[in-house]
Design a protein that fits this description.
By secondary structure, the chain is an all-alpha fold. It has one domain. Helix content is 74%, strand content 1%. The chain is built from 12 helices and 2 strands; from the N terminus they run ααββαααααααααα. A hairpin with a 2-residue loop joins strand 1 and strand 2. Helix 3 packs antiparallel against helix 6, helix 3 runs parallel beside helix 7 and helix 6 runs antiparallel to helix 12. The longest helix is centred in the middle third of the chain and has 35 residues.
Length: 279
Amino acid sequence: MSGRPDLPAPPTFAAGAVRVFSLSLGEMLWSRRTVFLLLVTGAPVFLALVARIVQGSGVVPLRVNGAAVDGGAIFGMMIWIFFLRFIVPVLGVFYGTSLIADEVEDRTITYLFTRPIRRGAVLVGKYLAYVVCTTLVVLPSVVLVYFLLVPLGQVARTFTAFAADLGLLALGLAAYGALFALVGAALKRPLVSGLLFVFGWEQIALLVPGYAKRFTVAHYVQGLVPHAMPSDGVVQVLQSVLRDNPPAWACVLALAGVVAVSLWLGVRAVESREYVLDQ
Protein backbone atom coordinates (compact mmCIF):
# COMPACT_ATOMS: atom_id res chain seq x y z
CA MET A 1 0.00 0.00 0.00
CA SER A 2 1.33 3.40 -0.91
CA GLY A 3 -0.61 5.21 1.81
CA ARG A 4 -1.64 7.79 -0.77
CA PRO A 5 -5.38 8.56 -0.65
CA ASP A 6 -7.29 8.04 -3.86
CA LEU A 7 -8.19 11.32 -5.56
CA PRO A 8 -11.89 11.85 -6.21
CA ALA A 9 -12.95 11.46 -9.80
CA PRO A 10 -13.52 14.77 -11.61
CA PRO A 11 -17.18 15.65 -12.16
CA THR A 12 -18.82 14.77 -15.43
CA PHE A 13 -19.47 17.46 -18.03
CA ALA A 14 -23.13 17.72 -16.97
CA ALA A 15 -22.29 17.84 -13.25
CA GLY A 16 -19.70 20.54 -13.88
CA ALA A 17 -22.17 22.60 -15.89
CA VAL A 18 -24.73 22.34 -13.06
CA ARG A 19 -22.15 23.54 -10.52
CA VAL A 20 -21.24 26.53 -12.65
CA PHE A 21 -24.93 27.24 -13.28
CA SER A 22 -25.77 27.34 -9.56
CA LEU A 23 -22.85 29.67 -8.89
CA SER A 24 -23.45 31.96 -11.87
CA LEU A 25 -27.21 32.37 -11.51
CA GLY A 26 -27.00 34.24 -8.22
CA GLU A 27 -24.20 36.43 -9.54
CA MET A 28 -26.20 37.33 -12.66
CA LEU A 29 -29.40 38.11 -10.76
CA TRP A 30 -27.54 40.62 -8.57
CA SER A 31 -25.24 42.06 -11.22
CA ARG A 32 -25.25 45.51 -12.79
CA ARG A 33 -26.42 43.98 -16.04
CA THR A 34 -29.64 42.90 -14.34
CA VAL A 35 -30.30 46.53 -13.40
CA PHE A 36 -29.92 47.35 -17.10
CA LEU A 37 -32.22 44.43 -17.90
CA LEU A 38 -34.89 45.73 -15.50
CA LEU A 39 -34.69 49.21 -17.02
CA VAL A 40 -35.00 47.90 -20.57
CA THR A 41 -37.92 45.58 -19.83
CA GLY A 42 -39.59 48.22 -17.66
CA ALA A 43 -39.99 50.62 -20.59
CA PRO A 44 -42.76 48.59 -22.32
CA VAL A 45 -44.51 48.15 -18.97
CA PHE A 46 -44.48 51.91 -18.48
CA LEU A 47 -45.88 52.50 -21.98
CA ALA A 48 -48.59 49.89 -21.41
CA LEU A 49 -49.52 51.57 -18.12
CA VAL A 50 -49.80 54.94 -19.88
CA ALA A 51 -51.97 53.37 -22.61
CA ARG A 52 -54.20 51.79 -19.94
CA ILE A 53 -54.64 55.14 -18.16
CA VAL A 54 -55.41 56.91 -21.43
CA GLN A 55 -57.88 54.19 -22.40
CA GLY A 56 -59.52 54.41 -18.98
CA SER A 57 -60.12 58.11 -19.52
CA GLY A 58 -62.18 57.32 -22.62
CA VAL A 59 -59.53 58.23 -25.18
CA VAL A 60 -58.37 55.71 -27.79
CA PRO A 61 -54.57 55.35 -27.26
CA LEU A 62 -53.78 54.29 -30.85
CA ARG A 63 -55.43 54.52 -34.25
CA VAL A 64 -54.34 53.08 -37.60
CA ASN A 65 -55.87 54.68 -40.71
CA GLY A 66 -58.56 56.16 -38.47
CA ALA A 67 -59.54 52.80 -36.99
CA ALA A 68 -59.17 52.27 -33.25
CA VAL A 69 -56.61 49.63 -32.28
CA ASP A 70 -57.76 47.39 -29.42
CA GLY A 71 -55.59 46.25 -26.54
CA GLY A 72 -54.84 42.83 -28.01
CA ALA A 73 -53.51 44.33 -31.23
CA ILE A 74 -51.40 46.89 -29.33
CA PHE A 75 -49.94 44.05 -27.29
CA GLY A 76 -49.01 42.16 -30.48
CA MET A 77 -47.31 45.25 -31.88
CA MET A 78 -45.34 45.79 -28.67
CA ILE A 79 -44.18 42.16 -28.72
CA TRP A 80 -42.89 42.61 -32.24
CA ILE A 81 -41.44 46.13 -31.97
CA PHE A 82 -40.07 46.29 -28.43
CA PHE A 83 -39.33 42.73 -27.42
CA LEU A 84 -38.44 40.74 -30.54
CA ARG A 85 -36.78 43.50 -32.56
CA PHE A 86 -34.90 45.16 -29.71
CA ILE A 87 -34.93 43.68 -26.20
CA VAL A 88 -34.28 40.03 -27.07
CA PRO A 89 -31.29 40.60 -29.42
CA VAL A 90 -29.80 43.33 -27.21
CA LEU A 91 -29.92 41.11 -24.13
CA GLY A 92 -28.45 38.26 -26.14
CA VAL A 93 -25.53 40.48 -27.15
CA PHE A 94 -24.80 42.02 -23.77
CA TYR A 95 -25.20 38.83 -21.75
CA GLY A 96 -23.97 36.24 -24.26
CA THR A 97 -20.74 37.98 -25.18
CA SER A 98 -19.94 38.57 -21.49
CA LEU A 99 -20.13 34.95 -20.34
CA ILE A 100 -16.43 34.38 -20.98
CA ALA A 101 -15.26 37.93 -21.78
CA ASP A 102 -16.15 39.21 -18.29
CA GLU A 103 -14.12 36.44 -16.68
CA VAL A 104 -11.14 37.42 -18.83
CA GLU A 105 -11.58 41.11 -18.03
CA ASP A 106 -11.94 40.44 -14.29
CA ARG A 107 -8.94 38.06 -14.40
CA THR A 108 -11.01 35.24 -12.90
CA ILE A 109 -10.82 33.00 -15.96
CA THR A 110 -7.67 31.31 -14.63
CA TYR A 111 -9.42 30.45 -11.37
CA LEU A 112 -12.34 28.89 -13.24
CA PHE A 113 -10.14 26.89 -15.59
CA THR A 114 -7.99 25.47 -12.80
CA ARG A 115 -11.00 23.84 -11.17
CA PRO A 116 -11.57 20.13 -11.90
CA ILE A 117 -14.29 21.02 -14.39
CA ARG A 118 -14.06 20.95 -18.16
CA ARG A 119 -13.74 24.37 -19.75
CA GLY A 120 -16.74 23.70 -21.96
CA ALA A 121 -18.89 22.96 -18.90
CA VAL A 122 -18.06 26.44 -17.61
CA LEU A 123 -19.50 28.00 -20.78
CA VAL A 124 -22.60 25.79 -20.80
CA GLY A 125 -23.30 26.38 -17.10
CA LYS A 126 -23.01 30.15 -17.49
CA TYR A 127 -25.19 30.03 -20.61
CA LEU A 128 -27.94 28.16 -18.74
CA ALA A 129 -27.75 30.77 -15.98
CA TYR A 130 -28.18 33.48 -18.63
CA VAL A 131 -31.29 31.79 -20.04
CA VAL A 132 -32.90 31.46 -16.60
CA CYS A 133 -31.94 34.98 -15.51
CA THR A 134 -33.26 36.72 -18.63
CA THR A 135 -36.48 34.72 -18.80
CA LEU A 136 -37.16 35.40 -15.11
CA VAL A 137 -37.10 39.12 -15.88
CA VAL A 138 -38.39 39.37 -19.46
CA LEU A 139 -41.40 37.05 -19.23
CA PRO A 140 -42.93 38.72 -16.13
CA SER A 141 -42.57 42.03 -17.97
CA VAL A 142 -44.54 40.57 -20.89
CA VAL A 143 -47.21 39.28 -18.50
CA LEU A 144 -47.64 42.76 -17.01
CA VAL A 145 -47.90 44.34 -20.46
CA TYR A 146 -50.48 41.74 -21.50
CA PHE A 147 -52.80 42.27 -18.54
CA LEU A 148 -52.42 46.04 -18.73
CA LEU A 149 -53.42 46.17 -22.40
CA VAL A 150 -55.78 43.27 -23.00
CA PRO A 151 -59.28 43.61 -21.49
CA LEU A 152 -60.37 40.73 -19.28
CA GLY A 153 -63.13 39.89 -21.76
CA GLN A 154 -60.49 39.14 -24.43
CA VAL A 155 -58.19 37.04 -22.26
CA ALA A 156 -59.86 33.71 -23.10
CA ARG A 157 -59.72 34.46 -26.82
CA THR A 158 -56.11 35.66 -26.87
CA PHE A 159 -54.51 33.48 -24.18
CA THR A 160 -53.24 30.86 -26.66
CA ALA A 161 -51.50 33.56 -28.68
CA PHE A 162 -50.14 35.01 -25.44
CA ALA A 163 -48.66 31.64 -24.42
CA ALA A 164 -47.08 31.38 -27.89
CA ASP A 165 -45.54 34.82 -27.36
CA LEU A 166 -43.91 33.67 -24.12
CA GLY A 167 -42.47 30.58 -25.79
CA LEU A 168 -41.25 32.63 -28.74
CA LEU A 169 -39.46 35.10 -26.48
CA ALA A 170 -37.79 32.31 -24.50
CA LEU A 171 -36.65 30.64 -27.73
CA GLY A 172 -35.32 33.94 -29.08
CA LEU A 173 -33.37 34.60 -25.87
CA ALA A 174 -31.90 31.10 -26.03
CA ALA A 175 -30.89 31.42 -29.71
CA TYR A 176 -29.32 34.87 -29.48
CA GLY A 177 -27.61 34.00 -26.20
CA ALA A 178 -26.05 30.82 -27.61
CA LEU A 179 -24.84 32.59 -30.76
CA PHE A 180 -23.18 35.39 -28.82
CA ALA A 181 -21.79 32.99 -26.23
CA LEU A 182 -19.87 31.51 -29.18
CA VAL A 183 -18.79 34.99 -30.28
CA GLY A 184 -17.65 35.80 -26.75
CA ALA A 185 -15.67 32.58 -26.51
CA ALA A 186 -13.99 32.92 -29.91
CA LEU A 187 -13.30 36.64 -30.37
CA LYS A 188 -11.30 39.15 -28.37
CA ARG A 189 -13.74 42.07 -28.81
CA PRO A 190 -17.06 40.22 -28.92
CA LEU A 191 -19.40 43.06 -27.91
CA VAL A 192 -18.56 45.18 -30.95
CA SER A 193 -18.99 42.17 -33.25
CA GLY A 194 -22.32 41.33 -31.65
CA LEU A 195 -23.70 44.84 -32.02
CA LEU A 196 -22.57 44.98 -35.65
CA PHE A 197 -24.35 41.68 -36.29
CA VAL A 198 -27.65 42.73 -34.67
CA PHE A 199 -27.87 46.36 -35.79
CA GLY A 200 -25.87 46.05 -38.99
CA TRP A 201 -25.94 42.70 -40.74
CA GLU A 202 -29.40 41.57 -39.61
CA GLN A 203 -31.07 44.87 -40.46
CA ILE A 204 -29.56 44.91 -43.95
CA ALA A 205 -30.06 41.22 -44.69
CA LEU A 206 -33.76 41.34 -43.78
CA LEU A 207 -34.36 44.11 -46.31
CA VAL A 208 -32.30 42.68 -49.18
CA PRO A 209 -34.13 40.22 -51.45
CA GLY A 210 -32.58 36.79 -51.70
CA TYR A 211 -31.09 34.26 -49.34
CA ALA A 212 -29.07 36.59 -47.10
CA LYS A 213 -31.86 36.73 -44.50
CA ARG A 214 -31.50 32.98 -43.92
CA PHE A 215 -28.17 33.68 -42.25
CA THR A 216 -29.80 35.77 -39.51
CA VAL A 217 -31.54 34.78 -36.30
CA ALA A 218 -34.15 37.51 -36.74
CA HIS A 219 -35.50 35.88 -39.92
CA TYR A 220 -36.56 32.75 -38.06
CA VAL A 221 -37.79 34.64 -35.01
CA GLN A 222 -39.94 36.85 -37.22
CA GLY A 223 -41.21 33.78 -39.01
CA LEU A 224 -43.04 32.87 -35.80
CA VAL A 225 -44.44 36.35 -35.14
CA PRO A 226 -47.60 36.06 -37.29
CA HIS A 227 -48.53 32.94 -35.32
CA ALA A 228 -48.07 34.75 -32.01
CA MET A 229 -49.56 38.12 -32.85
CA PRO A 230 -53.33 38.69 -32.65
CA SER A 231 -55.00 38.22 -36.02
CA ASP A 232 -57.01 41.45 -35.99
CA GLY A 233 -57.04 43.35 -39.26
CA VAL A 234 -55.22 46.37 -37.84
CA VAL A 235 -51.95 44.45 -37.62
CA GLN A 236 -51.94 43.45 -41.27
CA VAL A 237 -49.52 46.30 -42.02
CA LEU A 238 -46.95 44.72 -39.70
CA GLN A 239 -47.64 41.21 -40.90
CA SER A 240 -47.13 42.25 -44.52
CA VAL A 241 -43.53 43.09 -43.64
CA LEU A 242 -43.04 39.49 -42.53
CA ARG A 243 -44.15 37.81 -45.75
CA ASP A 244 -42.14 35.02 -47.41
CA ASN A 245 -41.19 33.49 -44.08
CA PRO A 246 -40.55 29.76 -43.66
CA PRO A 247 -43.21 27.67 -41.90
CA ALA A 248 -43.33 27.71 -38.11
CA TRP A 249 -41.86 24.22 -37.70
CA ALA A 250 -38.88 25.17 -39.86
CA CYS A 251 -38.30 28.31 -37.79
CA VAL A 252 -38.35 26.33 -34.54
CA LEU A 253 -35.92 23.76 -35.94
CA ALA A 254 -33.63 26.50 -37.25
CA LEU A 255 -33.54 28.29 -33.89
CA ALA A 256 -32.96 25.02 -32.04
CA GLY A 257 -30.14 24.32 -34.49
CA VAL A 258 -28.62 27.74 -33.77
CA VAL A 259 -28.60 26.91 -30.05
CA ALA A 260 -27.11 23.42 -30.49
CA VAL A 261 -24.46 24.33 -33.08
CA SER A 262 -23.44 27.57 -31.35
CA LEU A 263 -22.99 25.85 -27.98
CA TRP A 264 -21.04 22.99 -29.58
CA LEU A 265 -18.72 25.41 -31.39
CA GLY A 266 -18.48 27.56 -28.26
CA VAL A 267 -17.39 24.58 -26.18
CA ARG A 268 -14.73 23.71 -28.76
CA ALA A 269 -13.53 27.32 -28.85
CA VAL A 270 -13.26 27.58 -25.06
CA GLU A 271 -11.40 24.29 -24.75
CA SER A 272 -8.91 25.07 -27.52
CA ARG A 273 -8.26 28.78 -27.08
CA GLU A 274 -5.46 30.19 -24.94
CA TYR A 275 -6.77 33.16 -22.98
CA VAL A 276 -4.02 35.72 -22.42
CA LEU A 277 -4.77 38.22 -19.65
CA ASP A 278 -3.88 41.83 -20.38
CA GLN A 279 -1.23 43.28 -18.12
